[in-house]
Amino acid sequence: EESVVECDTLVLGAGPGGYTAAFRAADLGQKIVLVERYPVLGGVCLNVGCIPSKALLHAARVVTDAADMSDRGIRFGEPEIDTVRLNEWKQDVVNKLTDGLSALARARRITVLHGIGQFSDSHEVEVSGQKEKWRVRFKNAIIAAGSSAVKLPGFPYGHPALVDSTGALQLDGIPGRMLVIGGGIIGLEMACVYDALGSRVTVAEFSEGIIPSADRDVISPLLERITGRYEAVYTGTRVARLEESGKQLVATFEGVGAPAKPQTFDQVLVAVGRHPNGRSVGAEKAGVMIDERGFIPVNRRQQTNIPHIYAIGDICGEPMLAHKASYEGRIAAEAIAGLQTEYDALTVPSVAYTDPEIAWMGLTEREADKKGIPYEKSVFPWNASGRALTMGRPDGVTKLLWSRQDGRLLGAAIAGTNAGELLSETTLALEMGADLEDIALTMHPHPSLSETVLFASEVGLGTVTDLY
Ligand code: FAD
């Protein structure tokens, strides 16, 4: 059975980029077809990314916070962890959100087709569903097909102990010894979950340091905490071989920081990055250019080289983050509707929801040094924050970078509990062109972690009167 469907705008992929674009375009009066190969909307982020990982990280946080109270006068027993119930709760959260998206799509009269979409030419996508097939003819298209986990060649994929982030999010008991390959955001977030639930975690990262894109001084509170808790954190280390040994896997390491002997693990997570799905949508049949890494290049209105075909989200470039995808989705929808719009965000904030969290935006010192941009910095250590001390978590730091010429904020980085929430004040400050004085003259509630931003600005201005 094949039917033909006509629309103004076809959106390929229903992740945060795709559904945002589809909703905005529908609200602007267009007839929309949204194509998604999964049976639910929400993409990686809602189903197997941001949301389920944050549910598990919350559980992890409760366990470690409870344990941290034991020498402060409150002792709980050993936590009893029921992974079946925990998975159910996590899935309930996901379902609430994905059901909500379906309702929002229905309310906007968006046609949702579940199947794999492939361009057949520059005005048509063929969609193959489980039973049905559709030919969707469109005036405009938005490619929002996202990214997939990178696989390491030669590894025994199919072995139950070898998982990617999707497998790691589906708790199947709690492994005794776990190896996390890749010390980036995704790997370290999962390491944090399994450590709290009782696994003995080893992290192996190829670069010199974990989370390579952030400055080293803001990484150090995280590094200190995890080197204290985990079995090992190897940097400058490659897992050269991974071999089956019954139910377990044996890893052989290589590199400057590597252990000499092979080690045996009950579970191995590969989190070495994600690659864009540019080559999997038949874009070349529509004449859409794809670069050598699989990204689809776009201009500031999210247009590809074919002007009526747009691309957004993970598929069109780094950083691969949900809020960048939805921001770009809005632009593509508005550009198609003929509105004056273009990508003009000054920064894409990044957050590792580890314990402690690491969050940064704008310029980093490393980038500034590389580009020769002159800057000043001020750093406020959380062990002088009253609020951080009352939470028993003085392991944090708030850093501001600003312009030597006019004092305007250039970047910020925060390590500590809730750093991800705290970062947004600095992002707004950057977008509004605020300088250090603007921050220093803004009253912040006391005692709060947000005060560390105020204190860092006062340190920078040399107007510190008291730190608490
Ligand atoms: P996706 O969410 O990847 O959606 C693309 C959709 O297109 C998918 O549903 C896919 O099924 C569909 N599709 C692809 N090809 C086809 C086709 N040919 N036909 C039909 N459908 C197709 N980001 C954050 O900002 N914060 C976080 O905390 C965070 N945590 C993460 C945790 C994990 C474990 C992972 C893996 C990722 C995380 N990310 C996080 C990244 C975030 O998930 C992505 O940046 C985001 O999902 C990108 O959105 P997107 O719309 O570009 O694509």
UniProtKB/TrEMBL annotation:
Cofactor binding note from Swiss-Prot or TrEMBL: Binds 1 FAD per subunit.
Residues making up the signal peptide according to the UniProt record: none
GO molecular function: dihydrolipoyl dehydrogenase (NADH) activity
Superkingdom field: Bacteria
EC number: 1.8.1.4
Keyword NAD included in the entry's annotation: yes
Record flagged with keyword Disulfide bond: yes
Keywords from the named record: Disulfide bond, FAD, Flavoprotein, Lipoyl, NAD, Oxidoreductase, Redox-active center
Cofactor(s) essential for the protein: FAD; (R)-lipoate
Catalytic activity: N(6)-[(R)-dihydrolipoyl]-L-lysyl-[protein] + NAD(+) = N(6)-[(R)-lipoyl]-L-lysyl-[protein] + NADH + H(+)
Family: Belongs to the class-I pyridine nucleotide-disulfide oxidoreductase family.
Miscellaneous comment in the UniProt entry for this protein: The active site is a redox-active disulfide bond.
Protein name, UniProt field: Dihydrolipoyl dehydrogenase
Organism: Oxalobacter aliiformigenes
Record lineage: Bacteria, Pseudomonadati, Pseudomonadota, Betaproteobacteria, Burkholderiales
Stretch of the intact protein here: 109 to 576 of 585
